[in-house]
Amino acid sequence: xxxxxxxxxxxxxxxxxxxxxxxxxxxxxxxxxxxxxxxxxxxxxxxxxxxxxxxxxxxxxxxxxxxxxxxxxxxxxxxxxxxxxxxxxxxxxxxxxxxxxxxxxxxxxxxxxxxxxxxxxxxxxxxxxxxxxxxxxxxxxxxxxxxxxxxxxxxxxxxxxxxxxxxxxxxxxxxxxxxxxxxxxxxxxxxxxxxxxxxxxxxxxxxxxxxxxxxxxxxxxxxxxxxxxxxxxxxxxxxxxxxxxxxxxxxxxxxxxxxxxxxxxxxxxxxxxxxxxxxxxxxxxxxxxxxxxxxxxxxxxxxxxxxxxxxxxxxxxxxxxxxxxxxxxxxxxxxxxxxxxxxxxxxxxxxxxxxxxxxxxxxxxxxxxxxxxxxxxxxxxxxxxxxxxxxxxxxxxxxxxxxxxxxxxxxxxxxxxxxxxxxxxxxxxxxxxxxxxxxxxxxxxxxxxxxxxxxxxxxxxxxxxxxxxxxxxxxxxxxxxxxxxxxxxxxxxxxxxxxxx
Length: 501
Description:
Mean pLDDT: 93
CATH superfamily of the domain at 2-91 and 232-312 and 450-496: FAD/NAD(P)-binding domain
CATH topology of the domain at 2-91 and 232-312 and 450-496: FAD/NAD(P)-binding domain
Structural class: alpha+beta
Largest sheet: 8 strands, mixed
Radius of gyration: 22 Å
Shape: globular
Distance between the termini: 17 Å
């Protein structure tokens, strides 16, 4: 009996609910440490929001399109004795994104400061090049200041944030603590086109530049540090991690939803599947929208978890097209942004709960890039920001309206698509709400609005000792690298709480 108890303490039964990048990152580290890991997901395969749509020339990404902050993933793979390059084929993109304005201006941002600076000077002039230089170095300093104490900290608090700032008081004016991103950018750039460009990064975490804190100007540095594509699409990263988990003994169950977490005394001990199956657990990691808990999607025993997510504003949703087609556009890059006529029109409409009629449109041309031949057929992902369902109920005419808005606008930029599109090619906010329960169609969890938004976000630890939260709705926030980092931080917190011993 004593030997059995010792074995039980060493090899824990960990249930991971959700095979998104956060859950997969946790599962890999736990399986590598020798624990009995079981990953359960209602979807048919791994990846979470790293979704794909079938195409005639291969899978089409209809989720995240590039990898940023590569060191996060290099560290994850190294921590289990692997090299990421042995499992996915990465290619660094020289152009971060190609930007287009209605007045005919086109601007590329590049993988390094010098090239971007030269491009901005060439397009906008020497004076604006100097404005960019200041913006670049200020945001880089902010990113480096808050990286370790906040982004790589599982449980940051205001005292830690202030301590980081007081060590570098020269950063306080750069933080602009009582300003919005929109206001801050207007003080950096005289040209409204660059205000519009860098304000766009608020949408990467589900916010609007008019309400996102100025401090989050540092987000752009995640992309400025480089972007990488993955051969075969982003879902290949999820499949590579799944494969490594399985090689270490982890079990995966797909097409099964978890409907309840049952607590005995102060810990979760049972996971209930939709078919009534009961699975014993020493600990549970939930990789889903944390709002599912206070909404009762996982039973009454966890309704008190992440309570604030029920009252906090939700982040943006999206209309996401995924299809392949012949197109008349020879000069697309991998990442392309086609800006609205009026910078605020898109977010003003979203704030009112309306479908934007003057949107900024993002296109990922999956097979385009420097030194790549122009394909006969392009695999395309097209994204328009949208309000979550809490702001706007779906309407029968939404598909036709979105189709007209999207392709009429792109035609104005000279893009025409030789393909008839139907409803299956478009993922709408109501589809995201169905795919990710309790999300309201929001893709990034809580809204980043307000100076304290970062500290209001749920953290990976909960009031229940053996229940942990991971994913884009949890600190350190939305995006593939942040979700992966969250998954790793959760395992560290499990160790601190002595769950794994």
